[in-house]
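Q:
My hope is that you can spare some time for a protein that puzzles me. I hope you can help me see how the letters and the C-alpha cells relate. Thank you; the sequence and its C-alpha cells follow:
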Amino acid sequence: MPEIDIDKLDAQQVQLLAEMCILIDEEDRRIGAETKRNCHLNENIDRGLLHRAFSVFLFNTENKLLLQQRSDAKITFPGCFTNTCCSHPLSNPQELEEKEAIGVRRAAQRRLKAELGIPMEEVPPEEINYLTRIHYKAQSDGIWGEHEIDYILFVRKNVTLNPDPNEIKSYCYVTKEELRELLKNAARGEIKLTPWFQIIADAFLFKWWDNLNHLNQFVDHKKIHRM
C-alpha cells in the first residue's frame, strides 16, 4: 500500500480525519464507529469497511440545482464537481438517532453550514427530505476511497451562501439542460465529477427533478439501491 504523507495534505482537512463516522453492515445496521481516516483508506474498504453518508440536492425556487466544485484541498476527489453537499453523520447522540433519519438530516444541516455557510435556521431538519439510500464503492486514488450507504436528501429553498474556500472551489445553480452539458463535458474528460454524483445523475436525478412537486412517489426507506 502507498505511504500516506500527512505533511502533503491540507492541515484543516487532516483535522477532519479524526471525526468518528458510523460503521454499518450492508443493511445499514449500526455496528460501531471508526475515524473518517480509517473509513476512507482503500485497504480498509477492501476488507469491507462501510459507513453511513448523505448527499444533499438543494434546489432554489426556480428549480435550479446548486452544485459545488470540491476544493483542491479535499483529500478525496479534489477539484471534482458534485451535488450540493456530501458528507457523513458522526457517531454522536444527535446524529446517531435513526427515527425518520433525523440524525442524518441533522448532520446535513451541520455540513450545509460548514461547507456552504448556509445559516442553520434556513435549513431545519424538518425541511430536509429523505428519499432513499444508495450503496456504492469508488476509489479516489491509490490510498483513499469511498464505501458508503448514502442517504439521498432533497431541499427546495432559496438560501444564503457563504462558502468555505477550504471546502469549496466554486459553486453554481444549474438547470437540467446545463447539467446535461456538464455531464457531456465530464464524459469528454474536460471536468471531473464525483463518482456518487455521476451514479445518481445517470440513474435517478432527472426523473426526480422532473417531479419536484411529487417526490413522495420516489420515497423508499426500505430499499437500498446497490450501484
Summary: The radius of gyration is 17 Å. The mean pLDDT is 94. The chain is about 25% helix and 30% strand.
